[in-house]
C-alpha cells in the first residue's frame, strides 16, 4: 500500500472526496454508487477500494473531517482548556453548523444518514469534552456530550428560535454535572 504522505495518494484521496461531495449535491447519498464516485473522480474501482471499504466508510470520513473543521472553527479565540459555558455554547453552535452544512450539501439524502451524523457528533463531543475535564471523568463527558446533543435534537425538533440564546440557556445545567 502507498504511504498516506505520498502526494499521489493524497491527491487521489482528495479526488474521491471531491467526487463524493459533488455527487451528494447532485445525486444524493442513497442513489450514489461507487461506480458513480470512481467515474466522477476519474479513477478505477480498485483505487477507490484501496482507500475506502465502501461509500459508507467514505461518508464517515467526510463527516469526521467536517465535524473536526467546524468544531475547531467554533472554538477559535477561546483561551481556556477547561469546559466552560463559552465552550459548551460553541459546541452547541458547532452541532448546528454541521447539520446545516450537511443538509445544504445533500437535501435529498440528508435523512438517510442523519443517524451517522448523530453517532459521529456524539463520539466527537465525548472525546473533546473528556479532554477538558479532570482525569477519570469519562462518565461525565458522556453525560454532558450526549446531553448537549439531546438538547440540540430538542431545539431542532421544536425550531426553538435563536440557537445562540438556546445554547446559553442549556449550558449552565449541563455544567452542573461536573
Structure at a glance:
This protein has 178 residues and is mainly alpha-helical.
Protein described:
The protein is mainly α. 72% of the residues lie in helices and 0% in strands. The chain is built from eight helices and no strands. The longest helix has 21 residues. The chain is globular. The termini are far apart. The mean pLDDT is 90.
In terms of topology, how is this protein built?
Elements: H1 7-26, H2 34-41, H3 45-51, H4 55-74, H5 85-105, H6 114-132, H7 138-158, H8 163-175
Helix pairs in contact: 1-2, 4-5, 4-6, 5-6, 5-8, 6-7, 7-8
List the defining traits of the structure above:
178 residues; mainly alpha; 72% helix; 0% strand; globular
The 3D shape can be described as globular
What is the makeup of the main sheet? none
The termini sit apart by 45 Å
Mean pLDDT: 90
Radius of gyration: 18 Å
Amino acid at each position: 500500500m502507498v504511504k498516506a504522505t505520498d502526494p499521489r495518494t493524497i491527491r487521489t484521496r482528495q479526488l474521491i472526496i471531491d467526487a463524493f461531495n459533488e455527487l451528494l449535491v447532485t445525486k444524493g447519498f442513497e442513489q450514489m454508487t461507487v461506480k458513480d464516485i470512481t467515474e466522477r473522480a476519474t479513477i478505477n474501482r480498485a483505487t477507490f477500494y484501496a482507500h475506502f471499504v465502501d461509500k459508507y466508510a467514505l461518508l464517515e470520513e467526510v463527516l469526521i473531517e467536517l465535524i473536526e473543521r467546524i468544531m475547531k472553527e467554533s472554538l477559535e479565540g477561546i483561551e481556556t482548556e477547561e469546559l466552560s459555558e463559552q465552550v459548551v455554547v460553541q459546541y452547541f453552535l458547532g452541532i448546528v453548523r454541521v447539520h446545516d452544512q450537511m443538509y445544504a450539501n445533500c437535501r435529498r439524502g440528508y435523512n438517510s444518514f442523519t443517524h451517522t451524523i448523530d453517532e459521529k457528533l456524539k463520539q466527537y463531543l465525548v472525546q473533546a469534552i473528556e479532554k477538558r475535564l479532570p482525569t477519570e471523568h469519562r462518565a461525565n463527558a458522556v453525560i454532558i456530550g450526549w446531553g448537549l446533543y439531546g438538547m440540540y435534537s430538542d431545539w431542532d425538533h421544536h425550531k426553538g428560535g435563536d440557537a445562540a440564546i438556546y445554547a446559553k440557556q442549556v449550558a449552565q445545567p449541563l455544567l452542573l454535572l461536573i
